[in-house]
Amino acid sequence: MCLDLIGISLLPFLKNPWSIFPLMFIFGFGFGGTSPIRTAMVPQIFGIQNVGTILGYLSLFWAIGGVSGPILAGYVFDITKSHNIAFLSGGFLVAIGIASLYFTAILINPDFFFLKNSKVTPKGVWRLPLLNSFPWPFSKR
Predict the structure, then answer these.
(1) Which residues 6+ apart lie within 8 Å of 32 measured at CB?
(2) Mean pLDDT in the chain?
(3) Considering the entire predicted model, what is its pTM?
(4) In angstroms, rounded to a whole number, what is the distance separating the alpha carbons of residues 8 and 36?
């Protein structure tokens, strides 16, 4: 999801039309990686009993965003004659999604970001090493 955020948020700042290709490679790699990660994270966070319902709602809201996003972006372009606001607001929504996923996972399953019975350290090890440097309120350090 972070690659999605990078890819969509940097689009307004591109000056060379050829620079869109590496950026879209980053965005596409992140976008393609979210489906298997999302499917794998749902049972770990919420448990196995409601996986079908939760994935159904995720797909529904994903589809609503896929239909309404281009329409709203076109409307913003018609008003401002620029795509910058649409891309930056899309990046902002991705950032909100990342934060809400993290805090939902922590509130429902506080041990989600730690591996249980790790041979590396008895205290556990982070599943997401990029988040290791932040002082999270539920961390077990």
Answers:
(1) none
(2) 77
(3) 0.65
(4) 20
Q: Break the chain down into helix, strand, coil percent, rounded to 5.
A: 70, 0, 25
Judge contact between 26 and 6, C-beta under 8 A. yes
Type of residue at 47: G
Of 100, 89, 90, 91, the C-alpha closest to 41 is 100
Domain ranges of the chain: 2-109, 115-141
- Number of residues that this document lists for the chain: 141
CB 41 within 8 A of CB 105: yes
Query: What stretches in the chain show pLDDT beneath 50?
Result: 117-139, 141
Contact 113, 131 (CB under 8 A): yes
Place of tokens 């196995």: 48
Nearest of 1, 98, 104 to residue 44 by alpha carbon: 104
- Look up tokens 């991705």; give the residue: 94
Give the C-alpha distances (Å, rounded to integers) separating 104 from 54, 109, 112: 13, 8, 10
Question: Amino acid identity of 44?
Answer: Q
Residue 62, CA distances (Å) to 26, 27, 65 in order: 20, 17, 5
